[in-house]
Amino acid sequence: MKITDHIKKANGETLFSFEIVPPVKGKSIQELYNNIDPLMEFKPPFIDVTTSREEYVYKEKGGLLEKKMTRTRPGTLGICASLKHKYDVDTVPHVLCGGFTKEETEYLLVDCQYLEIENVMALRGDARKEEKYFTPTKGGHRYATELVEQIQNINQGNYLHDTIESSGLGSFCIGVAGYPEKHMEAPSLQSDLKRLKQKVELGADYVVTQMFFDNQKFFDFVGAAREMGIDIPIIPGIKPIAVKRHLQLLPHVFSIDLPQDLIDAVEACQDNKAVRQVGVEWAIQQSKELREAGVPVLHYYSMGKSDNVKAIAKELF
Ligand SMILES: NC(=O)C1=CN([C@@H]2O[C@H](COP(=O)(O)OP(=O)(O)OC[C@H]3O[C@@H](n4cnc5c(N)ncnc54)[C@H](O)[C@@H]3O)[C@@H](O)[C@H]2O)C=CC1
Ligand SMILES: Nc1nc(=O)c2c([nH]1)NC[C@@H]1CN(c3ccc(C(=O)N[C@@H](CCC(=O)O)C(=O)O)cc3)CN21
């Protein structure tokens, strides 16, 4: 079922969902199941599976280091199919501009059709690790707007090199990213919102936000989006802080601010067990307030670890 239909069906009740990353290539999927199992009692209508960029690795060959481009966590679509089958849950693969040609994206979407995967998250993707800025892949898209356009074209039967009249296939429900604290490359929040509006005009059906730790930022963002005429569901993304290192890492990687109260609470912790507790409590407070405000879904960036998300979900769902 489409995410937008799950939201309609919930009739104002806030839903629970989460996001995972594929395991490192060569590892079994069992560990992932072990982490998902404890979350299924909270009845997520959907689970997101991220797609990782390719990266350079260095392999020794004849005493020399050889530079090779590889994906260390492939398998997004396979995992989506597996989870859908095992748990009877909708799965949402993240479809990226970076690392894929338009043809490869088309074939991925055709695979989604055969697997009856009706939802996709359309993202530009991050820059590769060694790059400072995102550079488009040859033959691929530069912005998520273009990717949304390609998916909408397919929804209308317009493939890259063929047009199929009335294919009888359903259409994809398209999720896109939104940034309450603006995307790191956007010159202003207003211009970032304009880009979001473009994605909506091109056919995006719902928004999932970047993580944030101050709900006011989310409320302001939703207010500004509504004022611009963005009227699709906006789902908040929530990340529980788990280790002290996150204080430096999260602002750096995701270009977000942390509230001083949260920083003080984390800094006062003796060990990471205490940090996890602070992170869980913060996320519970955030979630309660967001639910009170009527958000359609609370989407957790669990990234494959279930215990803190379980502790949060237990308080809310
Ligand atoms: N739920 C998720 O998985 C999320 C993923 N992300 C990640 O964040 C990164 C950015 O992805 P998206 O937001 O999808 O990218 P996007 O293409 O929508 O935006 C990227 C940047 O380009 C600007 N921009 C967009 N369209 C433009 C255009 N036509 N002309 C000029 N500038 C334009 C935007 O303001 C923004 O600064 C990706 O790495 C994505 O994986 C971010 C938030 C949530
Ligand atoms: N720019 C960007 N890229 C993404 O891939 C992305 C977002 N933003 N925001 C929304 C979701 C959330 N994602 C993530 C990814 C990793 C962690 C995370 O906490 N990872 C490590 C630290 C990061 C690192 O080492 O680079 C961790 O400690 O768990 C959280 C959310 C992926 N998605």
UniProtKB/TrEMBL annotation:
Its taxonomic path starts at: Bacteria, Pseudomonadati, Bacteroidota, Flavobacteriia, Flavobacteriales
* Alphabetical list of Pfam families matching this protein: MTHFR
Q: Which gene encodes it?
A: metF
Keywords in alphabetical order = Amino-acid biosynthesis, FAD, Flavoprotein, Methionine biosynthesis, NAD, Oxidoreductase
Q: Name one GO molecular function term.
A: methylenetetrahydrofolate reductase [NAD(P)H] activity
This protein's name: Methylenetetrahydrofolate reductase
**Member of which family?**
Belongs to the methylenetetrahydrofolate reductase family.
| Broad class of enzyme this protein falls into | oxidoreductase
Pathway per its UniProt entry is: One-carbon metabolism; tetrahydrofolate interconversion; Amino-acid biosynthesis; L-methionine biosynthesis via de novo pathway
